[in-house]
Amino acid sequence: MTTRTPASRRWIEDWDPEDEEFWERTGRKTARRNLTLSVLSEHIGFSVWSLWSVLVLFMSPEIGLGFAPEEKFLLVMVPTLVGALLRLPYSYAVTRFGGRNWTIFATAVLLVPAVLALVFVQRPGTPLWVFLIIGATAGVGGANFASSMTNITIFYPQRQQGWALGVNAGGGNLGVAVVQLLGLLVIATAGDTHPSYVVAVYLPLIVTVSLLSALRMDNVAAVRAEPGALREATKNPHTWWISLLYIGTFGSFIGYGFAFGLVLQNQFGSTPLEAASFTFIGPLLGSLSRPLGGRLADRFGGARVTLWNFVGLALGALALLLASRAGSFALFITAFTTVFVLSGLGNGSTYKLIPAVAASAAEAAVTAGGDARKAFARARRFSGAVIGIAGAIGGLGGVGINLAFRASYQGDSASGTPAFLCFLGYYALCMAVTWYFYLRHEAPAPTAASAGTRPATPAAHVR
Asked: Is 0.85 topped by the overall pTM?
């Protein structure tokens, strides 16, 4: 039943997607409508968040903005950092204000970084600190992901969450590729001295999606967090293991997406047009592969798919290391594109672990005699809290990647070798964590005592 408050905000009070009759009758249609608008909002958010990965390609002495390579890496790192830090409060905001209400705000506020970028990006002589502040405001676009994912988790039954979260996140991730493709279009048609054209495209889109969200989305009462839900999630060790894995998958996607163009310029001396011609390919394929990762995880288990993704990512990092040392542009592009695809698959499969862990605890609680409806409602709230935490920490992985590149390309060496060695080591760590905690045969099943507050992970559930 849908009710309206005096302020005309739409709230669905009775929402149970696990009830198959309810799902087929009304639930599926409502969920798809909210998913569609959530994807649009998140897509624009990612575009604004990654805007500076494109704008730095335009920055040159020709437009009065001649910054050093390490300064440009710092500029693309700042939005990544702020976006990661804001993800946790954004995730909580959905539980406080409702998914529809927060989506309206989270979309409309994107006008702030967009307008500021439009005003200053072609102003000669603007100091770096001004751009750093403007870049920081773009972090709200990255935070949009956490609130969107928390909201969509509520709408879909557990059996379809891998797919739904993959579509939602993949559609959002496409924003990275689209803004880079737009940058290529501007450079190819108007030249590399008109970065404001890229920014201007998003102003009407932000307004349009804000209005559509107000008209067509719903708030769901079930998303409201119980007191202490976030605290319970922080006490659960699986929250931190999954977050560590998400650093390796999403951190790779967003970190490489922001840095790719600058890496090509510094590693191979590419022009802005040459760099822009390749930067969008990886994020595009990585975004498209994310729903597939969720679908594969639904079928084969999140842990299995995640483990093989980290094996692939490690091999990709090794290929990048070899290409960097050999100066092979073709191998470098091929390896980078492969890493993007694998990071997308891993994003979907890693997020599938979250509802699987929560569901295992809910099932244990029901087996112990608990109320099924309350147990699975609590599992949903737990999933929402973990999504917020993992999303925030995963975003920090992008900061780490940009810091590694910034350190590698300082001075006269101009080599990405130290960075690629760091990435290879981290992927090896993630492989070990995935196997040890989620694939070992002796992985413990949840007990009745732990099911209420500390969801464990039976191997059969997540593999």
From this structure: no
